[in-house]
Design brief:
single chain; alpha/beta; five-stranded mixed β-sheet; 5 strands; 8 helices; 221 residues; globular
């Protein structure tokens, strides 16, 4: 794992990036973000989870990224992404390619996760230190949004397993991997958007605003 830590967080952004990585980054930077004022059914959301060696983005290691797209009202089985960095120990250029591949996969879509400070913190550090990218996507945080949408089921931030139980989802037995968590979050997100529409929160822009407001209000009250 020492080698993994060294190459994943090297502290010299964009130093000696391969030409193909630079070209992919240019492509991603030049791409336009999708509109956020369309209805949920027409918006491609990307649900994201990570694996890490601990909970501190400043000192612990990012070990994996899992993502799945939700659009047209469904989880798209052929529109997923997964990388296990622990299998790439010592292959720094491959890490750069995988991180860039995630950027191209996400395609500047709104990102959905559970606890932005944790997931976003690790991603932001990796992209900044490896690629020189200030990773600032449009985030939707289910940890804060679910209590806002389903205050009859839980009026404060709860562990993810609480919502898995609330929605009667089959989480299997034992410890789940990142992709299993991502797919569970995607299913919860699908159900949450139905509730959101009933509250006239019917676009990505409205959902992002509600997520930010929920986080702010619950953190300050």
């Amino acid at each position: 794992m020492l080698g993994l830590k060294k190459f994943l967080f090297r502290g010299s952004a964009q130093a000696n990036l391969p030409d193909d990585v630079r070209a992919s980054l240019d492509l991603w930077r030049a791409s336009k973000a999708p509109p956020l004022d369309d209805v949920h059914f027409h918006t491609r959301y990307v649900v994201v989870d990570i694996v890490s060696s601990g909970t501190n983005p400043e000192s612990d290691r990012l070990l994996g990224i899992a993502a799945a797209a939700v659009w047209k009202g469904a989880i798209q089985p052929d529109d997923t992404f997964y990388v296990d960095f622990s299998t790439l120990d010592g292959e720094g250029s491959t890490v750069d390619r995988e991180l860039t591949a995630f950027l191209l996969f996400a395609a500047k879509a709104p990102l959905v996760t559970y606890h932005i400070p944790y997931v976003g913190g690790f991603l932001q550090r990796a992209f900044k230190e490896r690629l020189g990218v200030d990773f600032q996507p449009q985030w939707i945080d289910l940890a804060w949004l679910l209590p806002s949408m389903f205050d009859d089921k839980g009026d404060s931030v709860m562990p993810m397993d609480h919502w898995i139980d609330v929605f009667g989802l089959d989480a299997g037995s034992g410890r789940r991997d990142a992709m299993a968590n991502t797919l569970l979050l995607a299913r919860i997100f699908q159900m949450m958007t139905v509730r959101a529409v009933s509250k006239q929160i019917d676009t990505a822009a409205h959902l992002i605003a509600e997520s930010r407001a929920s986080s702010f209000l619950r953190r300050t009250h």
